[in-house]
Amino acid sequence: MSRRMREIIQIDEELCDGCGECIISCAEGALKIIDGKARLVSDTLCDGFGNCIGACPQNAITIIKREADEFDEAIVEHHRPAPAVQAAKPAVITALPHAGGCPGSAMRMFEAPGQSRPVGSANVGEIPSTLTQWPVQLMLVPPTAPFLKGREILLAADCAPFAFADFHRKLLAGKALLVGCPKLDDLEHYRQKLEEICRHSGCTGLTVVMMEVPCCGGLGMIARQAITASGANIPLKEIIVGIRGDILREAAVK
Questions:
Q1: What is the CATH number of the domain that holds 226?
Q2: Do residues 131 and 141 make contact, with C-beta atoms less than 8 angstroms apart?
Q3: 143-158 pLDDT, tens per residue?
């Protein structure tokens, strides 16, 4: 197994209380509770994306750069535990069990893909949600998340749903959602994760929703780079939302 300098997680044993929330969020099965502490079982099982970070209520997990064995997806597939999240029937929430700590990163699928509630199903005056999964933050979503498989993906800047009032009905319906901020978050980390998603999810299309402000353009840039690097043939579309909530531009990217 070759070794190289790469990003990989590190667990602070002083802070870790052994709650196990990180294990739930690790799709690769790279973590185990040993002697009351979360520990990395093998470098080859850790992709370095840090999906476990947001799940840790003690902030005991960070990403560092060190010499480590290469991440090996073949070993992961052999080692990976049976999927804990299956497509659910409409209106039924399927969730991973958790015992204490922060449940915010536990994967959930609300409805089977393509089975979003019709607008008419809401009570009078209520606007129905078309969100079909959790989590939505790109930092927390594993590249192997079952709700990404074979779906069209909507990658949205954090501010877009607040600015565009009809975000759910016109943009999100029927799609898996990923959100992030190209100004405040780690763009290179996002690009690497998005590349893995493009390579392995079999997604049918990627739509990027950005605000008109200049810093938001980074989201479209990493989407283009990720698709190219993945080698996948994924249609890409960009939508620009104005700060007053109107759509300024909508176009396919070649």
A1: 3.40.50
A2: no
A3: 888 899 999 999 999 9
| Angle of the 187-200 helix axis to the 217-230 helix axis, nearest 10 | 40
- Which contacts qualify for 85-93: CB closer than 8 Å, 24 or more apart? 85/109, 85/145, 85/146, 85/147, 86/146, 87/112, 87/113, 87/146, 88/112, 90/115, 90/117, 91/117
Tokens describing residue 26: 């690790």
Cβ atoms within 10 Å of 100's Cβ, excluding its own: 10
**d(C-alpha 187, C-alpha 34), whole Å:** 33
Q: Is residue 87 exposed (0-12), middle (13-18) or buried (19+ Cβ within 10 Å)? A: middle
CB 39 within 8 A of CB 11: yes
Return the closest-CA partner of residue 118 out of 170, 173, 175, 161. 173
- The segments of the chain whose pLDDT lies below 70 read 1, 79-107, 110-125
**Does residue 135 have a cis peptide bond before it, meaning omega lies within 30 degrees of 0?**
yes
Tell me, yes or no, whether 154 and 237 share the same domain: yes
DSSP state of 118: P
Instruction: Quote the CA–CA distance of 88 and 94 in Å, as a whole number.
Output: 6
Are residues 241 and 119 part of one domain? yes
When divided into structural domains, the chain yields a total of 2
